[in-house]
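Researcher: Good morning. I'm working through a list of sequences from a screen, and I'd like to move beyond sequence-only analysis. For each chain I'm collecting a predicted structure so we can compare shapes side by side. This is the next one on the list. No need for commentary yet; just the structure.
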Amino acid sequence: MAEVGRVRVCDPGALLPDGFWAAVAVWLERPQVANKRLSGARLEARGSAALPRTEARRPGPSAGPEQERRGPGPGPSEGDPGPGLGPDPGTAGGGREQAQVPLLSGDPGQPVKTGRAEGGVPAAVLAALWGHFSQSLADGNPEMLAFLSRPGACSQPGAPHRLDLVLRTVIPKMSTRCPLRAPRREVVVQDVPNGTVSFLPLEENDDGNLEVTVDNVYQIQLRRSKEEWFISVLIFCPERWHSDGVIYPKPIWLGKELLARLARWSVENRKSEFKSTLSLISILRYSEAYRELKEKYKEMVKVWPEVTDPEKFVYEDVAIAAYLLILWEEERAERGMTAKQSFVDLGCGNGLLVHILCSEGHPGRGIDVRRRKIWDLYGPQTQLQEDAITPGEETLFPGVDWLIGNHSDELTPWIPVIAARSSYDCRFFVLPCCFFDFMGKFCRRQSRKTQYREYLDFIRDVGLSCGFQVEEDCLRIPSTKRVCLIGKSRTYPATGEVWRDEQRTQYIRSRQGCPSSLPEGGPSPSAPQVAADGAGHQDARRAACGAGAPATGLWLPGFHPREKAEPVRNCASLPRDFIDQVVLQVANLLLGGKRLNAGSSQEGILRTWNGGESLSLTEVAKELDRETLQRLKRECGGLQTLLRNSHQVFEVLNGRVHIRDWRRELQRERRPDDKRSRSSEAFKTRICWFFTHHPDGCVLPSDCCPFAHGPGELRPPRASKKNR
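Model: Good morning. Structure tokens for this chain:
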């Protein structure tokens, strides 16, 4: 055996050894965080066992028929040193989190067949694997036995030497640039008292049985020496280590990259507020679906007609489509369905997600308030509708299985409501991005959470109030907002629809500060009476809203969808005289209050030229009047955008505003092999602001300035050959 790396860990927060096991859990359950060539890992089974004694001639008793009849139950007591395989004790090692994976019982006397790589119960049972392996250790493999039982920092003399076992499948990332590699299974042996975790690869022998191989066996160890903690990586047999560059990297990577990450994770006193990536679906099937879709739709990047980044939007929608396809595939298997689910994408934007889902056989359509240029490239099989969506009786989809909200902005909180009121069988998928409430911007109410976490909790509350079992997952997309919320089932029977809809109405009104009781205007029929009369779903909803509901059928009259034409808010549409006034006012501040010229200055190069001082944007804003600031706030970027647009006069760097010195600008543009025409021969289409307004005039002479020093130098550009 050989040690390929060791690192000292500083632990000022006294987080070890628990922090070490939390870091090991990340590498065990989410190895793709450290190894980017992996897609993830799937935990097949968990259990506990004991190392065999060297004098033993057979493995200890395994889970037999009696255990199978009892099912998973309490494991052996702390004082039971027997080597039998039992359920995971769960809280060993400082209370680290354990995934809820069932322990599968098996007969260690039977060979372990290789089963399907994905889906359902694995054929290889952890009990049989450990039974065969422990028998080989007892019969004549003292080196491996010594490797697994190395004394560590936390070992206690006389304590039962019990182990935590995990059977996991490591899934490589699938791409066209990397050769396809099959997933590999491993038995992970966690020795909590000794502070070691060992990884034992499994291979298929000639008879098709799984067995532990000594190749690529490695161990991560935590030790303490003289009040200092150390984490090290050891390889059992270095001469038999075979690196494939994906699942098993080179030993130097284990000793440097992996070890550095484990050391950092061990002392990080923070817990992620989000779930693991792709926790609700099969990672292996997702990887296969994503690779196939990416190869099929990669040509969209080349023909992307929108101004947005094609690679980001194409591959993000491909990833979301792959997730939904696997989610729906597993749902069909759970429900015994054969027909593919239908859908409606509310606020579909460029419509690529709709196009992919329709091309993969799911009937559906997309609706957005504005038509995009790329819609014309999809063909007639992709149904995209240009329309504004206002939540009400006219925006229900009773025959649709799923409603999708992919960055649906102001419609995001309404999608669970629309799905709940469309039909009892309608489900929803939302990927929140911008923060909107039922009417207007979302207002924070808790300072202990991040705004993103608080908004996700709000959307979750909406789904719960609508009667959904809401699940959360984290997608694998190139975006900082990648947490989705899914409502697949209801918390109430179909007969309780009327009562539940009353709760929805009250919840929506509570978000607006309105009374939660039903509006006055006449007695509304009770829920039993409506049900007895056989009223339909929409009639029941109207009954819940009462006679005072708006005649238009809107659920909240104050809701306003976004405008069909996206307004230009980059200060370019502001009146010219208003922009000139702000420019003069800011320039006066930077020049120390010196009087600016109202007309032309004298021509010539000045020996001294006042470049002014620099001020922060906050200092500049304090000097502007309230009306000017309010007008600028309605534009994207406000004051900073206006000053950046006035490129001729100002330079904005790191939040500070300067007067632009065009002598430095010409020095930056000048190159040794510059063959461009002189500035005097260029077409000057604008008057020089400094020549007109600066107290010292322009810092450049007329033949060097790219702007006109007076109306006589204005020369409009000629029409290009293309225009002619």
